C-alpha cells in the first residue's frame, strides 16, 4: 500500500512540476503522456512514452526513472527492471526511492527464479533498511527463495520471525501457511524415517527367518537322507538275511522230505517183517505137531526174523530222532 502511495506521489509531483510549462509543451510532452498512461494502468503505453522521455536531458531525474522502473515491473518486463534499476542505483544513489528500487530488483530476481540473487538482494535490503516498511515483505521473499531451493531449515526461522515480529504485515498469513507446511514436512520426514527403519527391520527379520527356514530345511533334508540311507542299509541286510533263511529253509524242507520218505520205507519194511514173523510163528505152531526137527528149524528161523525186526526198529528210531531234530531246527529258525 505504501509503495503505491509513493508511486502516486511521484506521479503527481512530476505532473505538478510540468504544470508550469506552456500549454502546448505540456500537451505534447512525452513524459506527460507516459504519466497519464501510468495513472490509467496502461503499462504498454506508459513504457513507450516514459522510455522516450527518459532520453531527454530535462527528464533524467529520480522521479522519472522510478516511474519507468515501476511501469516495467507492472508490465512484467523483469529484465528491464534489473537493467534500469541498476542504472537508477548508479546515478541516483541518494534518492529516497533507492529502497523501493532495490526491493523491486529482488522481486524480479525471484520471479525469474534466480533464487540465489534474490536471497542476496533481500538480505542486503534488510541489513541496509531494517526499519523500512518493506522489511517484512523482503524477509518473506527471501525465505520463499530459500524454500524454493529446498533450504527448509534456513527458511523456517525467517517465516517464524515474520509472524512474531511483524504481526500486521500483509505477509503474515502466507508466512504462517509456510510454517505449517514445513512442520507437516518435518512430520512426514519423521514418519518416512520410521517407515524406512521399520521396513528395514522387517526386511532384515524376514531375511533372517527365511534363512533359518532354508537352514532348517537343509538340516532336515540331510537328516532325512541319512535316515533313509540307514534304513536302506537295514533293508538290504534284512533282505540278505531273508535270502539266507529261505535257502536254509529249502534245505531243511528237502532234508525233512527225505527223512519222511526214509521213515515211510522203514515203516513199510518193519510192517513186512512183522507180517512175515507172524506167518512164520503160525507155521512154527503147526510144525510142532509134526516133529522135533521141524521145531528146531523153526526156532532158528524165528530168532533170525526177530533180529532183523529189532534192527529195523533201531533204524526207525534213529530216523525219528533225525526227523524230530530237523523239525526243531526249522522251528528255531
Structure description:
The protein is mainly α and 333 residues long. It has a domain at 2-171: Tetratricopeptide repeat domain (Serine Threonine Protein Phosphatase 5, Tetratricopeptide repeat), CATH 1.25.40.10. 86% of the residues lie in helices and 0% in strands. The chain has twelve helices and no strands. α1 (2-18) crosses α5 (62-75). The longest helix is centred in the last third of the chain and has 116 residues, at 172-287. The protein is rod-shaped.
Short description:
It is built from 12 helices and no strands. The protein has 333 residues and is mainly α. It has a domain at 2-171: Tetratricopeptide repeat domain (Serine Threonine Protein Phosphatase 5, Tetratricopeptide repeat, Alpha Horseshoe), CATH 1.25.40.10.
List the helices and strands and how they pair.
Blueprint: H1 2-18, H2 23-28, H3 30-40, H4 43-53, H5 62-75, H6 78-91, H7 98-111, H8 115-128, H9 135-148, H10 152-165, H11 172-287, H12 292-332
Helix pairs in contact: 1-3, 1-5, 3-4, 4-5, 5-6, 6-7, 7-8, 8-9, 9-10, 10-11, 11-12
Rg over CA atoms, rounded to whole Å, is 67 Å
Element string (H = helix, E = strand): HHHHHHHHHHHH
Low-confidence runs of at least 5 consecutive residues? 1-6, 16-28
Name the CATH superfamily assignment of the domain at 2-171. Answer: Tetratricopeptide repeat domain
Per CATH, the class of the domain at 2-171 reads Mainly Alpha
Provide the residue-averaged pLDDT: 82
Q: What's the N-to-C terminus distance?
A: 122 Å
Amino acid at each position: 500500500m505504501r509503495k503505491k502511495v509513493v508511486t502516486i506521489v511521484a506521479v503527481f509531483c512530476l505532473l505538478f512540476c510540468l504544470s508550469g510549462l506552456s500549454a502546448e509543451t505540456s500537451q505534447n510532452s512525452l513524459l506527460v503522456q507516459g504519466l497519464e498512461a501510468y495513472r490509467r494502468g496502461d503499462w504498454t503505453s506508459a513504457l513507450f512514452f516514459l522510455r522516450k522521455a527518459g532520453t531527454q536531458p530535462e527528464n533524467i531525474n529520480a522521479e522519472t526513472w522510478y516511474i519507468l522502473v515501476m511501469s516495467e515491473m507492472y508490465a512484467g518486463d523483469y529484465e528491464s527492471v534489473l537493467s534500469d534499476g541498476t542504472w537508477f542505483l548508479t546515478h541516483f544513489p541518494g534518492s529516497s526511492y533507492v529502497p523501493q528500487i532495490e526491493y523491486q530488483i529482488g522481486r524480479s530476481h525471484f520471479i525469474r527464479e534466480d533464487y540465489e540473487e534474490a536471497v542476496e538482494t533481500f538480505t542486503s535490503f534488510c541489513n541496509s533498511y531494517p526499519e523500512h516498511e518493506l522489511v517484512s515483505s523482503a524477509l518473506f521473499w527471501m525465505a520463499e527463495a530459500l524454500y524454493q531451493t529446498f533450504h527448509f531449515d534456513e527458511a523456517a526461522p525467517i517465516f517464524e520471525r515474520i509472524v512474531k515480529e511483524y504481526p500486521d504485515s500483509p505477509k503474515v498469513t502466507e508466512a504462517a501457511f509456510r510454517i505449517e507446511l514445513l512442520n507437516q514436512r518435518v512430520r512426514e520426514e519423521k514418519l518416512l524415517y520410521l517407515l524406512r527403519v521399520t521396513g528395514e527391520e522387517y526386511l532384515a527379520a524376514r531375511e533372517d527367518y527365511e534363512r533359518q527356514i532354508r537352514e532348517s530345511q537343509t538340516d532336515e533334508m540331510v537328516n532325512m537322507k541319512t535316515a533313509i540311507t540307514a534304513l536302506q542299509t537295514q533293508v538290504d541286510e534284512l533282505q540278505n538275511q531273508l535270502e539266507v533263511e529261505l535257502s536254509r529253509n529249502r534245505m531243511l524242507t528237502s532234508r525233512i522230505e527225505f527223512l519222511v520218505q526214509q521213515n515211510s520205507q522203514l515203516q513199510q519194511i518193519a510192517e513186512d517183517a512183522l507180517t512175515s514173523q507172524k506167518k512164520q510163528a503160525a507155521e512154527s505152531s503147526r510144525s510142532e505137531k509134526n516133529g522135533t526137527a521141524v521145531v528146531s528149524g523153526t526156532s532158528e528161523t524165528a530168532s533170525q526174523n526177530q533180529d532183523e525186526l529189532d534192527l529195523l526198529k533201531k533204524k526207525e528210531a534213529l530216523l525219528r530222532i533225525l526227523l524230530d531234530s530237523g523239525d526243531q531246527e526249522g522251528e528255531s529258525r
